[in-house]
Amino acid sequence: MCVEPRFSYGELRPWLRRAATGAFTAVGGDSALVVSSDVRLDVDEERIHLYGRCSVRAGERARASR
Which phi and psi angles does 8 have, rounded to 5°? Predict the structure, then answer.
């Protein structure tokens, strides 16, 4: 899974940081969002996007929300 939040029609790359809850906040200009997931997410070296990997089988679920 790769999450690349962008604001202002892609002009602003957000500031990504892990919140105390384990979710991530993405802030760009006057806009912001919170990304949470059952899958462990990490920030890439350039701090451009969040990424994670998981496998699910029939009947299993992995949640991601914004």
Answer: 55, 50
